[in-house]
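User: Show me a protein chain along with its predicted structure.
Assistant: Here is one chain, sequence first, then structure tokens.
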Amino acid sequence: MRLLPLCCVVLALLAGCAPGHGLPPLPPGAVGEYRLGPGDSVHLTTFGQKQLTGAFRVGANGAIAVPLLGEVHAAGLTPAELQAAVAAGLKRKNLLQDPNVAAEVVEYRPIFVLGEVNKPGQYP
């Protein structure tokens, strides 16, 4: 019977020695739209233009290669900003007068989990 109170005291003392004890809490995460990065795969639909529609992967240089348009910078842009950039490029090069472009992320870049975890590595 005397061991139970002693165990409680020892556990209470050890709880104060846990890693990270006494650190301030993390600030709430910033909520915002997803920003594209190298490794993401996006599907661009240019309505009425099959040759300008398809899946494109953001390369290591942060760009996608769009037929007739060439490289379009995508890293750091939201899907809505990318579709606006592609539409502006098509209009600027006089390829289409009023392009209607939609962009959707179809595959997200992998994340990497490192440190003291059960399964470190790359995850989709």
